[in-house]
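Write out this protein's structure.
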Amino acid sequence: MAPVLLQGGETADLEPLLQAWLAEQHGIDGVEILDFELGFQDTQPPTRLGVRGELISGARLDNLLSCFIGLEALLDGDGRQAAVLVANDHEEVGSASACGAQGPFLGDVLRRVNAQLGEPGDEGFIRLIQSSRLISCDNAHALHPNFVDKHDAAHGPLINGGPVIKVNASQRYATNSGTAAMFRDLCREVQVPVQTFVTRADMGCGSTIGPITATELGVPTLDVGVPQWAMHSIRETAGAKDVGFMARVLTAFVNRAELV
């Protein structure tokens, strides 16, 4: 769908509009605009839906919801175990940028931290990576009652049914049996239900920053997410209960003294 921003013949010039915005919002007059970036977004605030408020709806739940949950888990952690929250730019447009998941930022930060606090040198960094675990937390496709045929019959995650472990034999997700077992154990520990998503064999599958980060760093990784409807639409829907479920599991993850 092509959006219409401005209409008006000869007066439909974007630069005067941008200059007016700069004057109105920042008090800057008479400037020459060399370049700019503009994006469209839903201006309606997020809201609770459903008879009992069991649904949440808003723009960009994928993947701001995971960023919020991850930050809440980090703040609720007891601090016994070192933990890092990574919120990458450009996650939905390829990750191939200086600050994206495929860029050097995370590796550079971890190397510098390890040099200050851990065993210095490449050997120390390798030991750090192999003793760590990464949870790539990116929303999952929930079973939509209007599009049941889009899911494999045995793998249809339900909204408010708990976090979803995402599995793909072609490595579009980074989950393996070891990292999945760790997550299932965490869910059992905090009494949170857990679900599994495997895409239909005859359909294409998206990916996440999980395989990218695992490839760049070599850290054992799994892909999980909160189930949602209408992924990548202008307004998405997820379950209110799932937010609390995922926060409990991730808090247990950052608090766990030993990883398996």
